[in-house]
Design goal:
By secondary structure, this protein is of the alpha+beta class. The protein contains 18 helices and 31 strands. Keywords: Hydrolase.
Length: about 750
């Protein structure tokens, strides 16, 4: 099996969804959300603090051509890809989360400073993990690469009497309505000899930079309001408002011969300029040009990450989509050890856990599997955030405030903590974690749940009941049986969320979905959930209707504004495919009803028709890697049930695959595997394959699941495939709480 790093295409997902027409089951799914991946092709470091990319101001990463889009096909802000410079700290695949970073814009110019902000067309774009390049209309070739806490820019100029590199310290956010981020305070200093430093306070967070430029014969000046500050070496702004903000920054300028290159190194920190300088010195050293060294080191880091996931077989298109999905899964969250601006001690600090309500299902289990130490650091950071701010975050950005996304979900960190505890992750004080988990269950919607045994929006009832279950797991594991039983008793109140007449969730308000989309979540007691719906047959019948079996193709949304298209689509109560994440685990609900063949059909349809190796090859927002990590797990024939230390087994998309987990190899082998193209390669639909039998480490695997400990411990999962459904995993079901004799 070979490393698939060279198959990565960072441009996948950067443009509006443009997939071949779906056929069969996939054609019956309805997409309510924005049909665009919202990814960017910029240079990124695996789970690093920094990214760097061409900046146009478009939604939502700063790269590209689109306006704000939340439903349907996005509308364009620009007609072509262009940039006014290159920025850092881009989001990856997110949708509407209010504010965006794009700080410290760097612009190579051969025009006067007054031209700063001009959008130049991008030509000859190139991107690979850790590297991005493009040529501007002006003829300047621009290249950027990054380290964990650093960025390096290299600009190759045409002949010019006055070439310049401008760093705009004042600019942040997006060029859309309400998209701009204004610094509250700032200071910067020119240190001479190509060096400068500064700190901005953005959204309550101090972000510092140390700059070193390879421009020995060029002038180095500060500028304010597009005018040079001759002789000035420091600018201080103690109180900035939107009405008083004028642009300011650093300029390096001088003559350039054709082909002359200039390098600019930048070290970043959330703890001041001294630490920013130290980060730059530690990663790249000071005093010499370092672009190629940084690019090479980051490439090796990406290669090391990709060495942990290998596959054999697969068509070229399938391998490209799989490799890029793995790449997108490892861009966020941002791990910045010893960088917390909110507490002074050393240790892990993690931000850009932007869409916790999506990534807790698939991406966090993937990160924890590939890098258990990172998984442990993430949990420790979440605990520390809770300790400092009073609650576990539902989403956590490089911005002050851990309660920003509380409406989206409740108690989601509890799932990752329960998995971490059961996996035995090191470095966590579990007694202290349990204290915070209990306290967090009482906040916001948790008060209603405590008083009334139900909370609205109704999905929070499911969240909180699940959070109680996850907390009970840790309490019992730590020996507090009484507390564990009390918590588990409250975890049973998930039933209060359901209407027993319909077998669906009760009428309520829903975040990005409806009650059908949330009714098939994988709960901690799926046996009781299926019984509530009327048993296996009725539950499967409900699922079949949800997934569109026997239904005609649907019409997808076009561009806004919509007439009756949206209400007609919503009235279908249909699976949203991978366009939206609330029901992303629903295909695996069939496992609990003894129909893994249905899971195989749905996952095969999604992998075949909803992804392609093209810029428009994603069906919806990648949401920080949630969608991409779903694709990785589904292609491996696995699905993590977050919070339950459980992985469901399904038909793999590759003949052979392996995962390296903490030094242990988990090998997935198939017998009878048939290569199937994806829709972008052929118009002929391919039939799914079904598991006939399976063994784990040579012993029969009669149920369609393994534990997280078995996955992390390594071993050999061998799966025999065939063209027709079999009796495999129809009798032995994945575990449920009510299966336990101890209650």
């Amino acid at each position: 099996m070979q490393n698939i790093l060279d198959s990565v295409d960072p441009f996948i997902g950067t443009m509006a969804t443009d997939l071949p027409p779906a056929q069969g089951l996939a054609a019956t799914w309805w997409w309510p959300k924005a049909q665009v991946g919202n990814t960017h092709p910029g240079a990124s470091y695996p789970l690093g603090m920094v990214s760097a990319c061409a900046y146009s101001g478009a939604y939502p990463t700063g790269y590209g051509v689109y306006r704000i889009s939340t439903e349907g096909q996005p509308t364009q802000l620009y007609e072509r890809n262009q940039a006014s410079g290159f920025t850092h700290f881009q989001q990856s695949g997110t949708g509407a989360i209010r504010k965006y970073y794009n700080y410290f814009r760097v612009t190579p110019m051969i025009e006067p400073l007054d031209a700063l902000g001009t959008l130049w067309q991008l030509h000859d774009e190139v991107a690979e993990p850790g590297y991005y390049a493009a040529t501007l209309d002006t003829g300047v070739r621009c290249e950027v690469t990054v380290g964990a806490k650093t960025a390096v820019h290299r600009y190759t100029f045409p002949e010019s009497r006055s070439a310049r590199v401008v760093v705009d310290f004042s600019y942040g956010g997006l060029a859309i309505e309400h998209g701009r981020t204004v610094p509250l305070r700032a200071h910067m200093q020119s240190l001479g000899r190509g060096q400068a430093e500064g700190t901005l306070v953005m959204e309550g967070v101090p972000l510092s930079v140390f700059i070193e430029a390879d421009t020995p014969d060029w002038r180095q000046l500060l500028w304010y309001d597009r005018r040079l500050v001759d002789g000035g070496t420091r600018l201080d702004f103690d109180y900035i408002r939107r009405t008083t903000l004028r642009p300011f920054g650093l300029i390096l300028m001088g003559p350039a011969v054709a082909g002359q290159t200039v390098e600019l190194k930048m070290g970043f920190s959330l703890r001041g300029t001294e630490q920013a300088r130290a980060n730059l010195a530690e990663e790249l050293g000071l005093g010499r040009t370092r672009f190629d060294k940084c690019r090479s080191r980051t490439r090796k880091k990406w290669s090391s990450s990709f060495d942990q996931v290998k596959v054999d077989g697969g068509t070229p298109a399938r391998r490209t989509v799989f490799a890029t999905s793995l790449y997108h899964s490892l861009i966020k969250p941002c791990f910045a050890d010893d960088e917390s601006p909110f507490w002074p001690t050393s240790g892990p600090f993690v931000f850009d856990i932007c869409t916790m309500w999506d990534i807790y299902k698939t991406q966090i289990p993937l990160i924890t599997a590939l890098e258990p130490r990172k998984g442990s650091a993430l949990l420790e950071s979440l605990i520390r955030v809770c300790e400092e701010e009073g609650n576990f975050p539902i989403g956590y950005r490089m911005a002050k405030g851990a309660d920003r996304f509380f409406r989206q979900g409740s108690a989601l960190a509890h799932t990752a903590l329960a998995d971490g505890y059961l996996l035995g992750l090191d470095g966590i004080d579990w007694d202290w974690a349990l204290v915070h988990m209990q306290d967090d269950l009482r906040r916001v919607y948790g008060e209603d749940f405590l008083e009334k045994d139900i909370a609205h929006p109704i999905t929070h009832t499911l969240d909180l009941a699940y959070g109680y279950h996850c907390t009970a797991v840790i309490a019992r594991g730590l020996g507090d049986r009484r507390l564990g039983d009390e918590l588990e008793q409250r975890a049973r109140y998930w039933v209060n969320a359901f209407d027993r007449e319909t077998g669906l969730l009760k009428k309520s308000t829903y975040y990005e979905g409806g009650r059908w989309n949330y009714s098939f979540r994988l709960l901690h007691d799926m046996a009781a959930r299926i019984a509530l719906a009327g048993g296996d047959d009725r539950f499967v019948h409900m699922l079949d209707g949800f997934f569109g079996y026997g239904q005609p193709p649907v019409r997808q949304l076009g561009t806004p504004p919509f007439a009756d298209e949206y209400s007609a689509g919503a009235a279908l109560h249909r699976f949203e495919g991978l366009n939206n994440e609330p029901d992303m685990e629903a295909p695996w609900a069939y496992h609990y009803a003894g129909r893994p063949d249905r899971t195989a059909e749905i996952v095969h349809a999604a992998l075949t028709y909803q992804f392609a190796p093209t810029p428009g090859g994603l069906p919806g927002n990648d949401d920080s890697g949630a969608l991409s990590s779903w694709y990785v797990w589904a292609s491996l024939g696995l699905f993590p049930v977050a919070g339950q230390n459980l992985f469901l087994v399904n038909t793999p998309a590759f003949a052979t695959a392996s995962l390296e987990i903490g030094g242990n190899e988990f090998l997935i082998e198939t017998i009878g595997h048939r290569e199937t193209p994806i829709s972008s390669e052929t118009g002929t639909p391919s039939a799914p394959q079904f598991v006939q039998s399976a063994t784990f480490n040579g012993k029969p695997l009669d149920g369609g699941f393994i534990t997280g400990n078995e996955l992390h411990g390594g071993g050999r999962l061998q799966i025999e495939l065939g063209p027709e459904p079999s009796a495999w995993a129809t009798k032995v079901r994945p575990p449920s709480v009510s299966d336990r004799t101890d209650g």
